[in-house]
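Hello Y.,

Per our agreement to keep a running log of every chain we model this quarter, I'm adding this entry. I've kept the format consistent with earlier entries: sequence first, then predicted structure.
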Amino acid sequence: MISGATIVCTSADETLAVLVVTPELNGPLGEEASIGGVMRGPYCERARTLPAEFVLKLHDNGTLVAMVVDPCYSTAELKMDYELELWSEQQGLRSIDFETRVELKKK
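Predicted structure for the entry above:
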């Protein structure tokens, strides 16, 4: 159902990063179908982190919004990334359709 996504960071400071995710659908969703997602992180190869989970909220226009509290931003010296998982759900069955990693950069 979900073949990809466009991800735009609309704001990013020391306390909050807001990402707007626009899922790319393979076709129309069924009447009872819904979409959702989650971001998990941060993850880093060179440092220990305590990952958190941020549930994406569905807006009326079909976009999903993630509000990452206390974000860890990537730098040239230390790469930090988050996992983005998008799913479709129909008749109580959830299918993970799209997964990717996202690096946050301070604006």
